[in-house]
Every structure is written in structure tokens, then in C-alpha cells.
Design brief:
Blueprint: H1 2-27, E1 29-32, H2 51-61, E2 65-68, E3 71-74, E4 79-81, E5 90-93, E6 99-102, E7 104-107, E8 111-115, E9 118-124, E10 133-135, E11 145-146, E12 152-153, H3 171-174, E13 179-181, E14 197-202, E15 205-215, E16 220-223, E17 236-240, E18 252-255, E19 260-263, E20 276-279, E21 285-288, E22 294-296, E23 299-301, E24 322-327, E25 329-330, E26 333-335, E27 338-342, E28 345-349, E29 353-359, E30 362-366, E31 371-374, E32 387-392, E33 395-397, E34 409-412, E35 415-420, E36 423-427, E37 432-434, E38 449-451, E39 454-458, E40 466-471, E41 479-481, E42 484-488, E43 499-504, E44 508-509, E45 512-514, E46 517-519, E47 524-529, E48 531-532, E49 534-537, E50 540-542, E51 547-552, E52 561-564, E53 567-570, E54 575-578, E55 587-589, E56 592-595, E57 603-604, E58 614-615, H4 616-621, E59 629-630, E60 635-637, E61 642-645, H5 650-653, E62 671-672, E63 676-677, H6 698-717
Parallel strand pairs: 1-2, 2-5, 3-6, 4-21, 5-22, 6-23, 21-24, 22-26, 23-27, 24-28, 25-29, 26-29, 27-30, 28-31, 29-32, 30-33, 31-34, 32-35, 33-36, 34-37, 35-38, 36-39, 37-40, 38-41, 39-42, 40-43, 41-45, 42-46, 43-47, 44-48, 45-49, 46-50, 47-51, 49-52, 50-53, 51-54, 52-55, 53-56, 56-59
Antiparallel strand pairs: 7-20, 8-9, 9-19, 10-20, 11-17, 12-17, 13-16, 14-15, 14-17, 15-16, 18-19, 57-58, 60-61, 62-63
């Protein structure tokens, strides 16, 4: 009886605690479903309907996990997390279900019509509709383009339309123009001229300019804002959003004055079956002032963008808006998320973001940057420094699709950032860029590690002045290591230049660059545009079009870089070292040199002048190079971009350290995004030889012949 009474008493006493514990456990989780209601309690059986309601519920319940059930969630207005929200909450897909956040407004109920002699579909979407992105269930759809392929050329430039005609410094680049002069025969009559957008491709910038007016008598095409950069004759441009060019399946046009959406259907699509989504909301999520917010296994798709007002910054799509924006926060994280058909920047990490990460995410068809980190150039001990951010194991498949000069991963004014084991390809400009202070000015950017990334097929002939990896300014402690970079191609036309593999630009200093494989770039594998105290060692620079190492120094008494134990492989066309300026401004000692076709017939040049090239041995005698080792490194099949070294390779016996460059890119055995297997892309996938961009004339070869002959005679008589 005593035992029975004791058990009953214990049960009575413990029951309230059990109820409380059960309530607490349930309160740690909130559920959201497309068929839910924001008036529900957020339990598994009574889910909420929106992210907004879930974050509000977390404030009162103490929940640390919000689960989303399978389906699509439309975000019409930016969901804003601030200091009033509960920190350390994870928002994730439930149990492997497929969850999508989108800003796209669905459009159905089209009617057949005829446009430009082609069968089309039309829908009234309202005169308030103002979207620049349209997508179907698979991908974004192209706006109309004139001409449909190729380019128009600037016919003339008139300083009457220049906003700063007296600019002296960098006038070739940084004057702004409010109009260009087109060939009058190039521009058709266009309705809704104010909705047409001019895209000018020049230097490292793509202009995106709305048309203000067009005068068919003079060819003057005037814009609503000035260009970011100087116009020159024969620069390329084309027109977007032209009604008269609407004639190809998949294309669309928004007639804003009349509120009509036109679409040329793809095969099999009918007026009754088509659903299209127009994206207007730029930023889906804003995190500002709350720590520990995480998103896992969420697909972000189909937001919008607006053409920036005011004159653009000329570099790296600096002004592109973010789909996710995080500022003043610690511990923000994205894990195994996917970003598809994003109109501009996918992820922006701004001022005072710390200890945060973007890990194992998939970025596909991104309008601007995949990841954009931008702090302020404040003192290193300032509490608002942006630092300790990891961008790891991500696959970036197509970036800069709207803002052509966007960078895949862009880092501005931040330190202790690790960009590791990412695969980045198919962009029109630089893949990874670090730094934002030109020359030797103060920079808070230091101690960044750009390691083991696979970068390829970038540039693609669209713009100029780019690198697989680009750096800028003083960067003590920054390391570039283990990266594999190939096929970087700049604009091949008049005025185009600069398809470089690794590109430390103006003032890049105090960096270690080692164990990188760079090959098949249009211009140079490695290009240093002045700096100080850089160490470049144990890299393979191979088979790039102009030279393998280009060193542009300034006569300022600074030792730009020390090159040691690097393999430089040419193929009878390019220089090993080029643009050498000042024997005391760089040091090249004990590097391994070989030519795939011509063996020990190797050249260098001064100031980029092929007609003033000299043999490597001559360069040694003149004091430009030291202790060159001219030897076949015994690659397995360099002609097909297999740079595996034989076990008896002489370079291994003389100090070169081999590494496994095939592991660059995403990590084998991991999952990227929802279900993409990591480590799948071979390091030399899609590699192809690049056309040599510097003209070697018959006269050049004659000069080389006689220089070689005279050198052989000199050697003969000095024995």
C-alpha cells in the first residue's frame, strides 16, 4: 500500500513537470506549410502559412527551429529581421522536403495574338506592373534584344554630352556621357522608346542605360543618366526591351504604358497551359541587428531587380541589390541552400557581419554576384569591421547574367575571409575579387585565404581587364593557394585586353601565391600590375596565350615580387616572362622553363614588345633572370592539359613540390545544395587552347633568328 501511495504521489507531482516539458519541447519548433494559416498555432498539425508569421511566433514561443513543409512560398514584401527578433533560430526545410522562396507573381490566362508576324501570347497585367525578370518553371526567359545576335558599334562621341569634359586623370576611362552617336542606319523605329535599355560593353564595365530620346536625323541616342565610363568610337553596344525585336520562342516584352505582357511561346506551350512569373521584389530577406539566423535546404528563386538610378560605380557591379542582405550580425549562415534565377546579387554580407558562412550552396543563373561581402574601410580595431566569414564548398554555375561585370565572389573591405573549395564558372568577368583600395593606401583587407577553388570559362570575350582571381591593394597575410584556373578570355576586339589567370592589380602587396595551377588563359597565366613584397612560388603557369608571367612594375624602388620554383610551360608562341621593367623591381630565380613544341627555345620580353624579345639565356646574361632551369618537367599529357608529373620528373628532384590539384573545387563526398554531389567536375573540364593575342610577324621571327644566331656565335667565340 505504501508503494502504491508513493507511486501515485510521484505521478501527481511529476505530471505538471511533464506537461511543462512537453510544452517547452513543442515550443522549440514551429511549422509552416503552403496550406497553413497565420492564425494557426504553428504546430505540426496546425501550421502557419508564412515566414513572416513564423519569425513573429518565435519571439513569443522561444522556438529555435522553424520547419517549412514542401511547396512554394511567395514573398511580396521584404521579410525583415531586426534586433527585436529572436536570435539563434534556424529556418529549414522539413525532413528533406523541397521548399522554395520566391518573389515571382504568377501570370496565367493568356490570349493568342500576332506580333511582328509571329504567333504570340498576350496578357493584361496592369499598368502598375514593372518587372525586368520573367521566368517559367525551368529558368529565366530572355528579354528582346536588338540585334538578335552580334553588336552595333558606337559611330561617334560628342563632348557636348560629356558631364566632365575637362577630366585629366584617367580621362580615357572615367568621363561620363549622357548620349552616344549611333549609325543612323542601325537603329529601327521603336515604340515605347523610354522602356528601351542600351547595353554598352567596354573596358571592365557594361553600361545599363535607359533611353531618354533618339533623334533619327543625327543618330543621337540620349540616356536618362550618364554612363559610368568614357565612350569611344567602335565600342560595342546593343539594345534590350525592344518590341519590334520580339519574334523568337521564349522571348518576352512588357508594354508598360499599356500594361500588356507579350510572350512568344516555346514549342508545346498554349495560351491555356502557360504560367509565367514576373519578379519585382529585389530583396527577399533582410537581416539587420540579430545574431545566429540560419537557413538550411531552402531554394531561393526568381526575385526582381531595378536599373540603378544615378551614375553607376564602374567596377564589379558594386550597386547590384541583394536577394538576401545581412548587416550588423554575427553567426549568420546559409547551409545547403540553392539560389536559382536570381535577378541580381544572391547573398550580400555587409557592414559589421562576423563569424558567418555560406556553405555547400548551389548558385545557378545569377544576375550579379553569387556572394558579395562589403564592409567599411575602418581601422582594424573598429568594432564594426566585417570579418571571419567563410565561403566554402559552393558551386557557382553562371553569374553576371544581368550585370555582366559582376564578380562571382566579391570581397571589399573585409579581413579573415576564407574562400575555400568552391567551383566557379560561366561568368563574363572575374570569378573571385579581393580588395578595394588602389595603390598603397590603408586597407582593412588582409589575412584572407583564397584556396583550392576551381575556376574556368570566365570572361568569354565580353569585357576586359579581368582575372580568375583578382586582388587589389595592401593585403598582408593573404594567401592564394591550391587554386586551379583555366580559360579566362577577354574581349578580343579593338581595345580589348586582359584575360589573366591570377591578377594582382594596383598595389597588391604582401601576399603568398603558391601551388596554383593556371593554364589556357587568353593573355597571361599570372599578371602583376605593380605591388610590393609578394612571394610567388611552386606554381604551374602553362600554355596561356601571351605569356606565363607578366610583371608590370613602377620605378618606385619597390621589389614587386619574388618568383621561385615555378614551372612555366609555353608552346612555341608565348613568352615565359613578359613586360619586364627594371631588373631590381622583381626577382625571378630558379624557375623551371620548357616549351611544349620547341623544347629549350624560350623567350622573354621587355615592356610587352614582341619585337624586342630575347632568349631566356640572353635574359640571364643581361641580369633579368637568375638560375633558370631549362628542362622538360615530364608532364603526363600537357597538350591535353594533364599536368601530372612523372615520378622521375627532374623538377621534383630539384625542389618543386607536387600537390594534388585535382581536388580543387567542391569537396568529394559532400552534398552541395539539395542533392548535387560535390567533387564531380574534373579540373580540366572544358579546357581548350587559347588563341595567341600578340602578333608575331614574319619580321619578328627574322629578328629572333638573327638574335639567336648572334648569341650562338658569341657563345662559340667565348669558349
Amino acid at each position: 500500500m505504501k508503494k502504491l501511495l508513493s507511486l501515485i504521489l510521484s505521478a501527481v507531482l511529476l505530471f505538471p513537470l511533464a506537461v511543462c516539458f512537453s510544452a517547452f519541447a513543442a515550443g522549440n519548433e514551429i511549422f509552416v506549410a503552403p496550406n497553413g494559416s497565420d492564425s494557426n498555432d504553428g504546430s505540426f498539425s496546425s501550421p502557419l502559412a508564412t515566414l513572416e508569421a513564423a519569425k513573429e511566433k518565435a519571439k513569443t514561443t522561444g522556438a529555435d527551429t522553424v520547419y517549412f513543409r514542401e511547396g512554394s512560398y511567395t514573398i511580396q514584401d521584404t521579410v525583415r529581421f531586426d534586433q527585436t527578433d529572436r536570435p539563434n533560430v534556424t529556418y529549414k526545410a522539413y525532413n528533406g522536403e523541397h521548399v522554395t522562396f520566391t518573389a515571382g507573381v504568377p501570370y496565367t490566362g493568356f490570349e493568342p495574338c500576332t506580333v511582328n508576324g509571329v504567333q504570340a501570347l498576350r496578357k493584361f497585367v496592369g499598368k502598375q506592373a514593372d518587372f525586368n525578370i520573367l521566368f517559367n518553371a525551368q529558368t529565366t526567359l530572355p528579354r528582346t534584344r536588338y540585334p538578335a545576335s552580334g553588336y552595333l558599334m558606337i559611330h561617334g562621341v560628342d563632348d557636348r554630352y560629356c558631364i566632365n569634359p575637362d577630366l585629366q586623370v584617367d580621362a580615357n576611362f572615367h568621363k561620363g556621357y549622357t548620349a552616344l552617336i549611333a549609325d543612323k542606319n542601325d537603329i529601327p523605329a521603336m515604340q515605347n522608346i523610354g522602356d528601351v535599355v542600351v547595353r554598352v560593353l567596354h573596358f571592365w564595365k557594361d553600361e545599363m542605360l535607359r533611353v531618354k530620346s533618339y533623334d533619327p536625323a543625327t543618330g543621337v541616342l540620349e540616356f536618362t543618366k550618364p554612363s559610368a565610363m568614357t565612350f569611344h568610337e567602335n565600342e560595342r553596344f546593343f539594345l534590350e526591351n525592344v518590341f519590334e525585336a520580339l519574334d523568337t520562342p521564349g522571348e518576352w516584352y512588357l508594354d508598360k504604358p499599356n500594361g500588356l505582357l507579350y510572350y512568344i511561346p516555346l514549342p508545346g506551350e498554349t495560351a491555356d497551359s502557360v504560367t509565367l512569373w514576373g519578379g519585382e521584389t529585389e530583396t527577399l530577406l533582410s537581416i539587420d541587428g540579430v545574431d545566429g539566423i540560419r537557413f538550411e535546404r531552402i531554394v531561393f528563386r526568381g526575385n526582381g531587380f531595378n536599373i540603378p538610378e544615378g551614375r553607376d560605380f564602374s567596377q564589379a557591379a558594386y550597386n547590384a541589390p541583394g536577394c538576401i542582405v545581412c548587416e550588423n550580425a554575427k553567426g549568420f549562415a546559409l547551409q545547403n541552400c540553392e539560389f536559382r534565377d536570381i535577378a541580381a546579387c544572391a547573398v550580400f554580407l555587409g557592414e559589421n557581419v562576423k563569424e558567418s558562412s555560406v556553405d555547400s550552396c548551389l548558385f545557378c543563373n545569377i544576375g550579379a554576384q553569387a556572394v558579395y561581402i562589403r564592409g567599411q574601410n575602418v581601422p582594424v580595431d573598429d568594432p564594426s569591421v566585417t570579418k571571419q566569414i567563410t565561403v566554402r564548398n559552393n558551386l557557382v554555375n553562371g553569374y553576371g547574367r544581368v550585370f555582366f561585370n559582376a564578380v562571382g565572389v566579391l570581397i571589399i573591405h573585409a579581413n579573415s575571409v576564407d574562400v575555400l573549395n568552391n567551383e566557379i564558372h560561366d561568368g563574363y568577368y572575374t570569378a573571385i575579387s579581393v580588395g578595394w583600395s588602389w595603390g598603397y593606401n590603408y586597407s582593412v583587407t588582409y589575412n584572407n585565404h583564397i584556396c583550392d577553388n576551381l575556376i574556368y570559362d570566365i570572361g568569354q570575350g565580353w569585357l576586359s581587364d579581368m582575372g580568375g582571381i583578382y586582388t587589389l591593394g595592401l593585403q598582408p597575410g593573404t594567401v592564394l593557394s591550391g587554386n586551379c584556373i583555366h580559360n579566362v578570355a577577354a574581349d578580343p576586339g579593338e581595345g580589348g585586353y586582359g584575360g589573366w589567370g591570377i591578377y594582382p592589380d594596383e598595389g597588391s602587396s604582401n601576399m603568398l601565391i603558391e601551388k596554383n595551377l593556371v593554364f589556357a588563359c587568353g593573355n597571361d597565366s599570372y599578371h602583376l600590375h605593380y605591388g610590393e613584397n609578394n612571394t610567388v612560388r611552386n606554381n604551374i603557369f602553362a600554355l596561356s596565350g601571351e605569356s606565363q608571367v607578366r610583371v608590370v612594375s613602377r620605378a618606385e624602388g619597390r621589389l614587386t615580387a619574388r618568383f621561385t620554383d615555378n614551372i612555366l610551360l609555353t608552346d612555341g608562341k608565348a613568352a615565359t616572362f613578359s613586360h619586364m621593367q627594371g631588373k631590381d623591381l622583381f626577382e625571378a630565380k630558379h624557375n623551371f622553363l620548357w616549351d611544349l613544341t620547341c623544347g629549350d627555345e624560350l623567350y622573354v620580353n621587355q615592356n610587352g614588345d614582341a619585337n624586342r624579345s630575347m632568349t631566356v639565356r640572353r635574359a640571364e646574361k643581361k641580369g633579368w633572370l637568375k638560375d633558370c632551369v631549362i628542362v622538360d618537367p615530364k608532364f603526363r599529357d600537357a597538350a591535353n592539359f594533364d599536368f601530372t608529373l612523372a615520378e622521375d620528373s627532374p623538377v621534383l628532384q630539384q625542389g618543386f613540390e607536387a600537390w594534388d590539384y585535382t581536388t580543387a573545387g567542391t569537396v568529394a563526398g559532400t552534398v552541395v545544395g539539395l542533392d548535387h554531389a560535390g567533387g564531380q567536375t574534373p579540373y580540366n573540364a572544358n579546357a581548350k587552347a587559347q588563341t595567341y593575342t600578340e602578333s608575331f610577324t614574319v619580321w619578328t621571327r627574322i629578328i629572333r633568328f638573327f638574335r639567336n644566331l648572334s648569341e650562338q656565335i658569341r657563345v662559340l667565340f667565348t669558349r
